[in-house]
Design a protein that fits this description.
- 2 copies of one chain form a homodimer.
- By secondary structure, chain A is mostly helical.
- Chain A has a domain at 64-197: Tetracycline Repressor, domain 2, CATH 1.10.357.
- Chain A contains 9 helices and no strands.
- At the A-B interface, α1, α7, α8 and α9 of A face α1, α7, α8 and α9 of B.
- Chain A binds a DNA duplex (30 and 30 nucleotides) through α3.
Amino acid sequence: MGMGRPRAFDADAALERAMDVFWRHGYEGATIAQLTEAMSINPPSLYAAFGSKEGLLKAALDRYTEKRDAWMDKVLDAPTAHQVAERFLMEHADAQTDPANPPGCLLVQGGLACGTGSENVPFELAARRTRTEDQLRERFVRAKAERDLGDSADPATLARYLSAVTSGMCVMASSGADRNALREIAAVSLKAFAEQAKA
Amino acid sequence: MGMGRPRAFDADAALERAMDVFWRHGYEGATIAQLTEAMSINPPSLYAAFGSKEGLLKAALDRYTEKRDAWMDKVLDAPTAHQVAERFLMEHADAQTDPANPPGCLLVQGGLACGTGSENVPFELAARRTRTEDQLRERFVRAKAERDLGDSADPATLARYLSAVTSGMCVMASSGADRNALREIAAVSLKAFAEQAKA
DNA sequence: AGATATCTGTAGTGTTCGCTACAGATGTGG
DNA sequence: CCACATCTGTAGCGAACACTACAGATATCT
């Protein structure tokens, strides 16, 4: 028995296009017609490969998370907690205003509040954001063990603070804030971090 | 000639209900059916009073902004820039986790990225957020004139920073962060503000 | 009271949504 | 070369969407 006709499109390249549409219009604002056109495929191919609109989003999020993890590895590899925070904040400022992508971040612009039937989407996005926060926290726990953070510094609070600031930068990017504006925010936040870190 | 049958519902009360629906589901996630049911009116009454779904949102935003302005007046009346920042941050933490409202803030959860045909909505929300930032900046300009802020402190940067942090808190609230979590973020941010303010 | 103007509720309108049935195309395994 | 399995493109499905035509109700103004 045969193995069937092979797929005529590159799933990863298609996901990259889908990511852009979800990012620019949000999950609910993105239509199947826009997605299929951006992906250069027809609806049946989309549904055969990804199951549903939500399945496509999850696949796009998986791909996004994969790339983000590689990026986070570099960030977390910085020798000190302060440098971790600096890289995290500054590179976020750059990425969120990179003209190659829509403004902000897929995990925020994708949809904070959705309609009935899509309640799972904000939840899914939140879980991925929390993952980044967890990675930061664990890194700061290590930093504390290495005496790189003060005794009264709380890794969870520091991680949550950085997560909140970068999320806020997403909202600012959505309002049209440019790279310099986000970098200024990052710079102020970094000083706050330093202040907390040495406590 | 007569003046016609009078409206049988209270427009302000209806807007309050509409606000809640937009807040909880976002602009695109909110359906006319949900809105009319929450407002206890029928579609023709909605369209006679507000023109369209987007018109209803703008009316709800106007009402939201009105209440927010009254609140901001109180915040801006604090004697020092530091106390302005403290009230702004802490009361945001409380408001965004007030069980009387959906989590976060209408100006963020309402929709950062929308579909084709609703491009105006994120723009409208952004304009209202910018308004708050402008109010803060002007207050800090005054504070600087009063020698309440250091010479190298930049009112625009400080205002943008506070705006970013509260927007970030909205995202955290959407992820399920509770009041204490947001207050911790506010506390760290306040120290950053103090550091910048005395510079 | 009568004419007029506006609101209200019922019951839809056309359009777009996410999704799929189907037939033809294109590969693999025997 | 043939049977089979899977993909592709066309064309369209039912449902839900934002919105409205219409008729009856209820007010004001003369």
